[in-house]
Every structure is written in structure tokens, then in C-alpha cells.
Write a sequence for this structure.
């Protein structure tokens, strides 16, 4: 059957392709260190599972209000106030089936056909596909080592056209792990205000920050930013709940109403008992998060150190999320077992032959690099680094 032009132009996922190859190798009995998974390798904490179980047993299995149950909205409002310094009413919150869903609804709610969205690269590929699906046009702004892989306010201002509708900020960032400072965000917020540009702030990795780094929500910085930002967050990364599919947005009331109306005709409410469990998660203590962040921090240091010791590999120092983004372009043009490395995809493909799976940077709009997720054990990190070293020493 013919598919629509709109959907037909979605690019196949490079991430899924390499992950599938790694899986196939694993099931064929090959030892593979997979630095590919964008999800915590921890189990959801027991108190959250128990809460879902209680919800299920007490009949919380029916439709809920489209924009979310009052208990969860209340927990989110409380969290945004206490942790982020953001004042919202429950009416400003829309709960969706994962932050990915919240993002898509946000783009649909504010973009008219042909509106431009400024996206700093490297970026999470989903933004690009979602903007296109929502009828928007991506205006990619490349960032590099010089700006610490962050969008500067000057770059942002230069990219603005009469068609610009919004800018996408993802801090901490997938795939680079960089975290924007308050001053950097403030200068972006000021440019947004000067040109009447809206902001979508994806904060799903907010709890995963290291070295005493502080996560700042851009919406807190000016009254304009508060009134013109859609804050996106969820429970996936913070509570190891990727499969539960609960995300949310905090936004101006007219956007919340529009999204709620749209959601009412697409997905309806997010999973009922997962919403109850998410309320418990958000209202619960920080103990699990502290332990998880500590473990990620140890792995981050180990992986960063290991990669920086390899001649030719240039690594962005990651201060957040659970990724390391490494520039491997020094090896382009070399060959492994007679096969030439021409870019990040062939680098990743050939490295897989050595038992290490990484995501090609092409998937994030940067073909010079690869992304490694430290969602694996320290033993695997050490094994992976040794294999990468061996791979590189065999290049001709
Ligand atoms: C930057 C970023 N935003 C949003 C999401 C979506 O999270 P979820 O839909 O699981 O809530 C992800 C997941 O990988 C992500 O990396």
C-alpha cells in the first residue's frame, strides 16, 4: 500500500540499524559491548512498581482525564515549583505517553506549515523528524568544540528569519552531554524575546548532572521566557521508567488546551496505572536518583578517561545525561581489514566487528563523531575501551 509523502520521507533510524546489528551478533553468540542504549540499565525502584500494582488492583484501569490524573499533575506542579522554581497551575500541565509524545504534540500545537524551528546540532534526531511531520522546517545550526557544542546567542540570532517560530534547547544534551549555564541560557532567552521566538526546552536529563553542575530551566530566567517556553520532561530517565511511557509538558494555558484537545483525538490519556506510579515516583525521595547518578558519574569518568587516552579521539567533556560524544574523524580514510572508513557510519559498522557497538554521529547531524552511552557496567566499559584501542591500532 502506498504511504503518504509526509511519512514516506521519514529517514530510517541509523540508531535502530546499528542496535539491531549488535543484537543479531549477540544472539549469534558473539560478545558485544553495546554503548548504544539511551536508557538507564537500572530497574524501576520497588516503591514505584508497588504503586502501579496497587493502582491496578484498586481498579485504576479505566480512561483518565486526557491531560492526566489530578494526583500526577499536582505532583508535577509541586516538583516544578520546588526543584525548578517554576510556578504553574495544574491547567498548565499535560501528561502524555512519554516525553517524545509531549514534544510531538508541542510542535503540532505551535507550528504552522513552513514555520522554522532552530535546532542546534548535534541534536537528538527525533526533533528533526517530528518537526517535519508537524509541517515545520528545521533550521539546523552547527555547534562545535569552540562553543563547547552549545548554541551561542549570536548563532541563534543569525539563524532567525521572519519564519522562525521556535528554538529547541536540550540541556543536558543528548548526544553530547553538555549542560548550558545560566548565563548562556539567559542570553538565548533575551534573543528569543527580542525576536518574539518561542522556546521548547527538553529537560528529560535534568537530574543527570555531574561535577556539581546545576540544571537550570530557561523558563525561570525572564518573564518572557516563562510565558513563551514549553518545558518538556518525564519520568523515563530520572526513575529508570523508559517503558512506562509517561512524559509531560508545562506550558502556557492556550497551548495546554490545544494539546489536550489534540491528544483527546489521538492517544487519549497516558496509561492509567503508570500515571499513578509516576505520581508516586515524583513525590518520592531522591535516594534512588542519588545512587544512580553516583554510578553514572563513576562510569562517565572511566569512559571519558579511557577515550581521551586514545590518540586521535577527541572527546567532548560531558557534564550531564549518560553519553560521551567522541570525534573520530582522524581515522577517516584509514582501513580496517581492507574496508575503508569513510564516515561515522562505516566507523561504527567496522568497530562492531571488534565487538563494540556505538551510534554513528550522522544520526545526530555530526558525521565526524560517534555516541557512546555509559548505560553498561564498568567492566563492560573497560572491555569496550580495550577493544576500541585494539581496533584503532589495527587501522591501516
Ligand atoms: C533528548 C531526549 N528527549 C526526550 C526523550 C524521550 O523520552 P521519553 O519519551 O522516554 O519520555 C529522549 C529519549 O531518548 C531523549 O534522549
Amino acid at each position: 500500500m502506498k504511504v503518504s509523502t509526509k511519512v514516506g520521507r521519514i529517514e530510517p533510524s541509523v540508531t535502530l540499524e546499528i542496535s539491531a546489528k549488535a543484537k543479531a551478533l549477540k544472539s549469534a553468540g558473539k560478545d558485544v559491548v553495546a554503548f548504544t542504549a539511551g536508557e538507564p540499565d537500572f530497574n524501576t525502584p520497588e516503591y514505584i512498581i508497588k504503586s502501579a500494582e496497587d493502582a491496578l488492583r484498586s481498579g485504576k484501569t479505566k480512561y483518565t482525564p486526557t491531560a492526566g490524573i489530578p494526583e500526577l499533575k499536582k505532583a508535577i506542579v509541586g516538583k516544578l515549583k520546588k526543584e525548578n522554581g517554576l510556578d504553574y497551575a495544574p491547567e498548565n500541565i499535560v501528561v502524555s505517553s512519554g516525553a517524545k509524545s509531549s514534544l510531538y504534540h508541542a510542535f503540532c500545537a505551535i507550528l504552522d506549515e513552513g514555520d522554522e524551528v532552530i535546532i542546534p546540532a548535534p541534536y537528538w534526531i527525533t526533533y528533526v523528524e517530528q518537526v517535519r511531520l508537524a509541517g515545520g522546517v528545521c533550521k539546523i545550526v552547527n555547534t562545535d568544540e569552540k562553543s563547547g557544542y552549545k548554541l551561542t546567542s549570536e548563532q541563534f540570532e543569525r539563524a532567525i528569519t521572519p519564519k522562525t517560530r521556535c528554538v529547541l534547547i536540550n540541556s543536558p544534551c543528548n548526544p553530547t552531554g553538555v549542560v548550558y549555564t545560566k548565563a548562556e541560557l539567559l542570553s538565548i532567552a533575551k534573543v528569543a524575546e527580542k525576536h518574539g521566538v518561542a522556546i521548547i526546552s527538553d529537560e528529560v536529563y535534568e537530574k543527570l548532572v555531574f561535577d556539581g553542575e546545576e540544571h537550570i530551566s530557561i523558563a525561570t530566567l525572564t518573564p518572557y521566557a516563562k510565558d513563551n517556553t514549553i518545558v518538556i520532561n518525564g519520568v523515563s530517565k530520572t526513575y529508570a521508567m523508559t517503558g512506562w511511557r509517561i512524559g509531560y509538558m508545562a506550558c502556557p494555558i492556550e497551548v495546554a488546551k490545544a494539546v489536550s484537545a489534540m491528544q483527546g483525538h489521538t492517544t487519549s490519556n497516558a496509561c492509567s496505572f503508570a500515571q499513578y506510579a509516576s505520581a508516586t515516583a515524583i513525590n518520592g525521595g531522591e535516594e534512588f536518583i542519588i545512587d544512580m547518578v553516583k554510578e553514572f558519574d563513576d562510569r562517565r569518568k572511566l569512559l571519558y578517561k579511557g577515550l581521551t587516552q586514545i590518540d586521535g579521539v577527541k572527546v567532548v567533556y560531558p557534564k550531564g545525561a549518560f553519553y560521551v560524544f567522541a570525534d573520530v574523524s582522524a581515522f577517516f580514510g584509514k582501513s580496517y581489514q581492507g574496508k575503508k572508513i569513510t564516515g561515522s557510519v562505516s566507523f561504527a559498522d567496522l568497530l562492531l566487528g571488534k565487538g563494540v557497538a556505538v551510534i554513528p554521529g550522522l544520526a545526530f547531524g555530526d558525521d565526524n563523531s560517534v555516541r557512546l552511552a555509559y548505560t553498561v557496567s564498568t567492566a563492560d566499559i573497560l572491555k569496550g575501551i580495550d577493544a576500541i584501542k585494539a581496533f584503532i591500532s589495527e587501522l591501516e
About this structure: The two ends are 47 Å apart (CA to CA). The CA atoms of residues 23 and 150 lie 33 Å apart.
